[in-house]
Amino acid sequence: MVFDLDGTLAETGRDLARSINFMRRKLGLPNLSEEEIKSFVGDGVKELVVRSLGEKGELYDKAIEIFLDHYRSHLLDSTYLHPGVEECLEHFREKRKVVLSNKRQEFVEKIISAFNLQSYFVEIIGGDKCPFMKPNPRLVVPLLEKYSVHPERAVIIGDGINDILLAKRAGMISCAYLNGLTKREKLLDLKADYYCDSLREIKDFFL
Length: 207
Prior knowledge:
Blueprint: E1 2-3, E2 10-11, H1 13-26, H2 34-38, H3 45-53, H4 60-74, E3 80-81, H5 85-91, E4 98-100, H6 105-114, E5 123-125, H7 141-146, E6 155-158, H8 161-170, E7 173-177, H9 184-189, E8 194-196
Parallel strand pairs: 1-4, 1-6, 4-5, 6-7, 7-8
Antiparallel strand pairs: 2-3
Helix pairs in contact: 1-4, 3-4
């Protein structure tokens, strides 16, 4: 079982948005709405900052430094686990589970540790730990081989477009979480194998 982090296990959008707007203010730029910033999440910190700068891309080097410094100190200010997360993980305790995120490794580990979830997972993989990022299927092939799991016996649970695309491209089962950072309509258009409004629901999907 492969779980996304941002928007799936944890609601991280507000802290990301606050750090992005702190960065923009430091650069003399006006705030963006929280919803707009959330729509930029999913392809790693570089793309988040680039998208948040818009036409001011020339400020990237300074912007990424400001963002990382601020987010490193504030990534747990408002972040919380989604309802049903611990119940779900405990239910599937005997299953091998992995956290797979395009977020930086240090941030993924810090959030997982803050909520004492690390014992549930055999691996925690951030976006800078491997040469590939979601939705590149080469990201999960080594994992499947390492644990001798056929793709059709593995599921990716996530709230992002990249999660569903990765599952489809790797021949894995896809399960879209509809109450995360991505708009429901976009996820429904992707025709995932399963959909849930709460992670509690997946207890009924898989043995």
